[in-house]
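Hi U.,

Before I forget, here's the chain from the pilot set. I'm dumping it here mostly so it's searchable later in email.
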Amino acid sequence: MTIDKSWTQIRKRSNSVVFWQGLQSFLQMAKPHVNDRGFIRCPCNRCINNAQHQLEVLETHIHRFGFMSDYNEWIYHGENVNAASSSNVPQPNSGVHDRDEMFEVLEDIISNDAEVDQLGSQSSNVQYDDLFTALNSELYPGVSSFSSLNFLVKSMHLKVMNKLTNKSFDELLKLLKLAFPKMDLVESHYEAKKLMTKMGLGYQSIHVCKNDCALFWNENSMSETCPVCSESRWKMQEGRQTGKNVPHKVLRYFPLAPRLKRLFATSKTAKLMRWHQAGKSTDDNVMRHPVDGRAWKDFDRKHPEFADDVRNVRLGLAADGFNPFNNMSISYSMWPVVLTTYNLPPWLCMKPEYLMLSLLIPGPQSPGKDMDVFLRPLIEELKELWENGIDTRDAGNDRKVFKMRAALLWTVNDFPARSSLSGWSRQGYKACPTCNEDTPSMRVIGKTAYFGHRRFLPSTHRWRSNLDFDGRTERKRPPRRFSSVDIMDQLRRVKTSIPGKHPNYGGVKRKRGDDELNWRKKSIFYELPYWAEIELKHNLDVMHIEKNICDSLLGTLMGDPHKSKDTDNARRDL
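Structure:
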């Protein structure tokens, strides 16, 4: 039986019914010959039978890039299978593609992102044209084991790991180009970054008001002035705008959804994303992963539809300030916001390669009470991932598409950062977020002192009746637990404050009313539909609790003059 292959020569494929019908016949013929993972060689002009994809990706590739012209006998797709050794059939070359590891990386990215195109539509793979060009290009004539793309990715990795400046990277590229004129290289770091962005490693630049009042984003993206304080979006010189529009501040936002999808793009990490189900402890008294904790189990009980699919992602958020200039004489505080994925096993979820930078909040001042302004893009994406989810290909389950959802379980911070995120002030007579309005405190020579720690001891403990502490016995019970209903009732009494640090708007200090307790604001996290019901919303990180307090305690006991808290001032306070 003669197979009609004339459709493979049609150039104007978008509106050709003949091409579409021929392509569908080809896919039907190839369907019985896919491997156990559903993959088969792709005969498009890009892959030229060197890459394997699923049939829907083949359809997308052939429709976008065309059918390779010298593939006359379709031995890999069902025609004359017994003649696979025919010398007239072009075999997959042994060049760049067979050995270049970047080929598998691109295959994972495209297979995860590609959608089945309809007749006449434009393929979603147009963005990958430059990546394919770099992948198909030999780094140097005769060097088939290393593609231009592979060299570029490894060079960028070395730049980051060794903290090379952009200028030094540009100079290195110029030197390589001078020494090896035939080497296929990009011209600058700027071009390299543009190409890397197409792999899904980019970010969004969002302009910020100079007073941290608002973001120039979404409905304010085209505004020239701040919607709160009316300050100009752009830097001014001598009362006039500079020749080039330069924003006062720029927030870098790294979209979350593409990074979560990438975790399911390879079979190895896709299987690890299910670890929390099979790896949970069988002993109720042992906790080796958050899945064994009461907060995780309580969340599953309240949201069973989310817990039913183990692939739904559980996230934790951490934020803190640092000085990027490595010079403590310069007062500058930049705040990275990092997310970690708790689906992974405990030995991976805190590894740097699995931590996802979500926001890079600019200085020079810490965001403080205006943290919610900067968190807005992340919260909007988290709401979308919870309510609607996103279609994701699961490489660990025959690349089937499922609706991935995500939830933020808690934050991990030091005490000052916890105040910025939660809205509960870390200062004053009611600074303890656990004791809440029942915080025991008193004024001691210009300082606020907190006492009553013995009430956490068992009721029969001998220290409760010891008079050496303050001359009194302790009969109070531990502080009561405040339910989500109690907390929401308190937040309803909190007045809405104006964001920002403008002296006439958000920068005006106001005195909190007695009914507001220690709440400065209602945190933006409460916009997440599930946040109010989470049992454990904020965690204090181990470093500050164990290391700093342990240093102070040991320094006092050992009489270390540099770390001891037993000073003259402390004794006068007592």
